[in-house]
């Protein structure tokens, strides 16, 4: 069970409790300013020992081994990496990081288990490039030095990237002038680097300025621009080996739209704003999934199976409660062992 309300919404103080009142698997919210009590663990998606926490494992088992955790990664279809074990609700203190080797726009960024990759785009000297830049992700979450990775088979901008459990895909896009139906794909190596790029199964038609999402075991390419804005939706299955199957045409959007932004919640997909031709619109389209809640439980997406003898804790975000002093503003979820 989850207990909410042990933190006073006005003062931020937590109510006294008897340790014996809670059984293994109980989740409660606790001030971030306080040390986590003995016998509790933070709900941060960490991998822990079955033997050490046998009572907790007897309750939760492998319930959290895949996807509720994946959902917290914001755009999981572009990511394949370990969970953020220091979740916090704020983004603060922007500074300038290590610059790219050159100016680049209209690219696509993905993350593998240890690296970030910036794919294609355009530069100050070229309308479209095949360049791939890559940098290591350090243990503290910072990025290392950018280097040049394996180039794409051709110049490409305005594409859409997704990541499956074994491959990265770039879907459609544009060369210097022409819209493409091309799909480029590369294997993800065990060290997070990318293998050789090849050409995958093409889209049914040319498409650029689309939005790509993944729902459970399918990829969807939403709207875009061919010779004009379109309402087209293309979809393909994600096979068990991480490759994509044949593209088909899905249910069209209610109207034509390109250059929008897509998000996925646990049961719906949204397209936010965008363009119709040259006009910028405030339209928001939404749809439910025919399969219901999108929990990414299918292993064809991203497999976060723990090592033998371990299990995964739930991964829940910190919350802000009330209008009390800054030091007591945030609470994080913890679970009884």
Written description of the protein model:
It is a single chain. The longest helix is centred in the first third of the chain and has 7 residues, at 54-60. This protein folds into 2 domains: 2-61 and 305-336, no CATH class; 71-88 and 98-288, Neuraminidase, CATH 2.120.10.80. 4% of the residues lie in helices and 34% in strands. It has helices at 54-60, 67-71; strands spanning 2-3, 27-31, 40-42, 47-49, 108-111, 115-121, 129-136, 147-148, 160-163, 167-174, 179-187, 198-199, 211-215, 218-225, 229-237, 248-249, 261-264, 268-276, 279-288, 310-312, 319-320, 330-336. The protein has 337 residues and is mainly beta. It contains 2 helices and 22 strands. The two termini are 13 Å apart. The model is unreliable at 1-5, 66-74, 292-304 and 323-328 (pLDDT under 50). Strands 1, 2, 3, 21 and 22 form a 5-stranded mixed sheet that branches.
């Amino acid at each position: 069970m989850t207990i909410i309300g042990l933190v006073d919404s006005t003062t931020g103080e937590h109510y006294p409790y008897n340790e014996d009142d809670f059984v293994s698997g109980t989740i409660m919210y606790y001030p971030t300013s306080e040390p986590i009590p003995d016998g509790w663990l933070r709900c941060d998606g960490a991998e822990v020992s079955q033997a050490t926490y046998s009572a907790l494992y007897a309750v939760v088992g492998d319930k959290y081994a895949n996807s509720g955790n994946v959902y917290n990664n914001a755009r999981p279809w572009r990511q394949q990496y370990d969970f953020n074990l220091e979740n916090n609700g704020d983004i603060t203190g922007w500074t300038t990081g290590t610059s790219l080797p050159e100016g680049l726009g209209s690219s696509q960024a993905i993350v593998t288990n240890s690296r970030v990759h910036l794919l294609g785009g355009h530069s100050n000297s070229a309308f479209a490039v095949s360049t791939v830049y890559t940098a290591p992700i350090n243990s503290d979450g910072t990025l290392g030095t950018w280097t040049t990775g394996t180039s794409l088979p051709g110049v490409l901008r305005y594409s859409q990237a997704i990541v499956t459990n074994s491959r990265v895909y770039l879907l459609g896009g544009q060369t210097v002038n022409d819209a493409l139906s091309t799909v480029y794909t590369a294997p993800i190596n065990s060290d997070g680097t990318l293998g050789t790029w090849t050409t995958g199964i093409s889209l049914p038609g040319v498409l650029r300025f689309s939005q790509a999402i993944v729902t459970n075991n399918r990829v969807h390419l939403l709207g875009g621009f061919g010779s004009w804005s379109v309402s087209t939706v293309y979809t393909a299955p994600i096979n068990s080996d991480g490759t994509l199957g044949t593209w088909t045409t899905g249910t069209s959007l209610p109207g034509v739209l390109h250059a929008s932004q897509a998000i996925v919640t646990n049961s719906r997909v949204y397209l936010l704003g965008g363009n119709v031709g040259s006009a910028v619109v405030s339209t928001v389209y939404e749809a439910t999934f025919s399969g219901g809640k999108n929990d990414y439980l299918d292993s064809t997406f991203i497999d976060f199976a723990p090592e033998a003898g371990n299990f995964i804790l739930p991964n829940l975000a910190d919350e802000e409660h009330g209008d009390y002093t800054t030091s007591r503003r945030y609470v994080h979820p913890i679970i009884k062992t």
